[in-house]
Amino acid sequence: MTPTIAIQGFAGSFHQLAAHQYFGPETAVTPCATFAEVVRQVARGTAAGGVMAIENSIAGSILPNYNLLQQSELRVTGEVYLPIRQHLLLLPGQTLADLREVHSHPMALLQCADFLNQHPEWKLVETEDTALSAQRIREGHLMGIAAVAGQAAAELFDLEIGAADIQSVPENYTRFLIINTAENAPQPASANKASVYFHTSHTKGSLARVLNKIADHDLNLSKLQSFPQPGRAWQYFFHADLEFDHADQFHEVLQDLEPLTEDLRVLGLYQRGNQQLTESTPVS
After folding, report:
1. What's the CATH code, domain 87-163?
2. N or C: which end of the chain has fewer CB atoms below 10 A?
3. Where is the ACT domain (predicted)?
4. Residues 146-182 pLDDT 10s
């Protein structure tokens, strides 16, 4: 059986593009309606790995996914930065004047808020996936309804682009994490990034001491995300992404962080993704 990669989304989605960018264009994917299902597929071993969006440069962090990672035993083994171009897709012959509704994933709608706010007459409908929204319009021949999705979905489902590049900021990208089980996680030859979880005591300066120690070791804190601890009001877990030149730097800072934190856990060491947005990069 050919190994498959679990993705949130369906054929023509940005998750599929991210999987092909990381694993290769011939990679088979297992579509999942939710991120929780992606985690389940990978944890059960029914998928050889998973791709999970974690943040967007316009819409921000996808907070539920940080919780999913924290609650699972999965490892982060890589990342992909994918430039995102969002288009308004219509049935052939339809125009913007014909529209009553716009359907898409909530993160896609957020990315295009400036454009969509110019049309208060349109009802915005949140769906599971960008490409699935396009597929439903084509299969149901839904007049007066558009989808926010990419070029790949337009071509796959033979829809017209009624408005191109409607994201609020031209330099729009989404960061995707590659996830796997601890048993199947590959060992990177030259890791230069790590993802960790921890929480600190609810006392003055506790987080500042952690951040100072990271700076003392000359690591770049590229991401710090807080999210609530269930059952402990106003106390938070922290997800931190750390970039370094050599793995020894990371292991040294880890030793210094242990007495300053609680429940410190390494989610994975991996090679950081290419953050350069270029015209030659597939962005549909």
Report:
1. 3.40.190.10
2. N
3. 195-271
4. 999 999 999 999 999 999 999 999 999 999 999 999 9
